[in-house]
């Protein structure tokens, strides 16, 4: 098995790219910095709440990816692990929360399914992230799909609170956006931090040699799991509270600045 000096993990939205500033793919400077990291013996990992399909614009710029908030890990084309939501729980969520007040997406690594009456959320979500339509398909009661994440868009926070209470100990929940009533749902215990712990053990990398760049609430476990958690210039309150250091925004080339400050490149 290949040995690495350490590992550096990067969130995607508002860390590697920033839709608000029109930066829809990793900048040339970021790509150059990732290559320097690789040459210096570090494993570079994209670590996102998105599924693999939603990262295809940039996944080839990294040596590996962790997707769906930790449910799927791949390094150099090899799938290290893939943990999906049990079929009975997928069906239970559909039965109870496929309502006019809670639109659902069901994500595999290749396609995202949307429920018919939730099409408005699907369209808004797709346009918000700049995703092509052919990555999505209508849900037609498919069976035995490997659903790694369910996304629930709610009319109010009380629905999220009720869901958390009902599925406590059965499903892992995290709000990916501080200012939106959206919930990411994975198998119980799955977080970015848990996936990083697994990766560190798998490659025998010391925690002090692990670094992560993030910005949002769903990055908190990632930032806490590594030796040094770097938070971008635009970030949520929760991410800022667990930062080891801060860097600039995506537009300000915060990744490169942070790596240089840390002496990794």
Automatic annotation (TrEMBL):
Keywords: Hydrolase. Pfam families: Hydrolase_3 (PF08282). One of its GO terms (cellular component) is cytosol. GO terms for molecular function: magnesium ion binding; phosphatase activity. It comes from the Bacteria. The keyword Transport does not apply. The keyword Hydrolase applies. InterPro entries: Cof, HAD-like_sf, HAD-SF_hydro_IIB, HAD_sf. This is HAD family hydrolase.
């Amino acid at each position: 098995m290949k040995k690495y000096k350490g590992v550096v993990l990067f969130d995607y939205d508002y860390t590697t790219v920033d839709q608000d500033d029109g930066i829809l793919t990793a900048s040339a400077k970021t790509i150059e910095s990732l290559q320097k990291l690789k040459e210096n013996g570090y494993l570079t990992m994209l670590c996102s709440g998105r599924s693999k399909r939603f990262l295809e614009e940039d996944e080839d710029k990294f040596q590996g990816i962790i997707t769906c908030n930790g449910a799927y890990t791949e390094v150099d084309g090899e799938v290290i692990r893939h943990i999906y939501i049990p079929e009975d729980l997928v069906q239970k969520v559909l039965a109870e929360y496929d309502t006019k007040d809670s639109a659902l997406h069901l994500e595999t690594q290749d396609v995202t399914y949307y429920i018919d009456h939730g099409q408005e959320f699907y369209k808004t979500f797709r346009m918000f992230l700049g995703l092509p339509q052919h990555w999505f398909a209508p849900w037609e009661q498919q069976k035995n799909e490997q659903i790694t994440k369910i996304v629930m868009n709610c009319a109010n926070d009380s629905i999220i609170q009720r869901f958390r209470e009902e599925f406590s100990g059965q499903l892992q929940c995290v709000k990916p956006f501080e200012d939106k009533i959206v919930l990411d749902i994975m198998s119980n215990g799955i977080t970015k931090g848990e996936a990083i712990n697994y990766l560190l053990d798998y490659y025998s990398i010391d925690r002090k040699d692990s670094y992560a760049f993030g910005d949002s609430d769903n990055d908190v476990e990632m930032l806490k799991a590594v030796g040094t958690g770097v938070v971008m210039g635009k970030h949520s309150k929760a991410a800022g509270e667990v930062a080891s250091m801060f860097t600039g925004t995506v537009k300000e080339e915060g990744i490169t600045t942070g790596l240089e400050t840390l002496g990794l490149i």
